[in-house]
């Protein structure tokens, strides 16, 4: 039976670890040719080897999502390698709310916003242009967060601002790109490794965290990857501008 992404070409940013790596491995198992884009070369090369050893097609590309010239180079090389195709783009790369120690740091604000918001903007802009040129439609999945909906008292507030920006920017692009058959959706993960808020805490804090989640556990990266796969595949052909919350029910409280 053909895979759910058979014959498709996908770029996944932040594909060298965590949710991005899980997405890359799953996409390859479902028949996609996967471009693993990341600044983390060791992890990206490892995921590339894992996919190839399992019989899949993948290549690693080192790139900084905040640099427009690197996005142009990534997309050009992908089109050249895979016969002019780009069917799926997952803007997964991001910084956590604890990436900056000082929550009042203006430099930290720009750092987080550049990666989490501007990186998604650049990827969506340039990835959709390649899809438009090919004329075959496509799927863009932008990874936001539960904190794109609500606030918290931890970490840098730029994280919340950036993830909310991803949420509404994606809706704007869904409306704009819909007539050309390009779908844009967001995924909103809840608490799960490798987020420091779910693993780098005391037993007491973890117990309180788990009690706040209706399913009474933290998530797994493969559970997010399964949701991203649905939005990347043709199974979601009438889904755009949507918000898929994968959070154990946290936002339903």
Q: Outline, from the CA principal axes?
A: globular
Q: Please give the largest β-sheet.
A: 7 strands, parallel
Spans of at least 5 consecutive residues whose pLDDT stays below 50 are none
- Estimated helix fraction: 40-55%
Number of helices: 8
Mean pLDDT value: 94
> What strand line-up does the widest sheet have?
3-2-1-4-5-6-7
The total beta strand count reads: 7
Please give the alpha-carbon distance between the first and last residues: 40 Å
| Beta-strand residue fraction | 15-25%
Going by helix content, strand content and strand pairing, the class is alpha/beta
- Tell me the Rg in angstroms: 17 Å
Order of helices and strands: EHEHEHEHEHEHHHE
Descriptive report:
The protein is α/β, with parallel strands linked by helices and 253 residues long. It is built from eight helices and seven strands. The longest helix has 29 residues, at 106-134. The termini are far apart. The mean pLDDT is 94.
Keywords:
single chain, about 45% helix, alpha/beta, about 15% strand, 8 helices, about 250 residues, 7-stranded parallel β-sheet
Write the layout of secondary structure elements.
Blueprint: E1 9-13, H1 18-29, E2 33-38, H2 41-53, E3 57-62, H3 68-81, E4 88-91, H4 106-134, E5 138-143, H5 157-177, E6 182-189, H6 196-199, H7 203-211, H8 221-232, E7 243-246
Helix pairs in contact: 1-2, 1-8, 3-4, 4-5
Task: Give a quick rundown of the structure.
Helices cover 45% and strands 15% of the residues. The protein is of the alpha/beta class and 253 residues long.
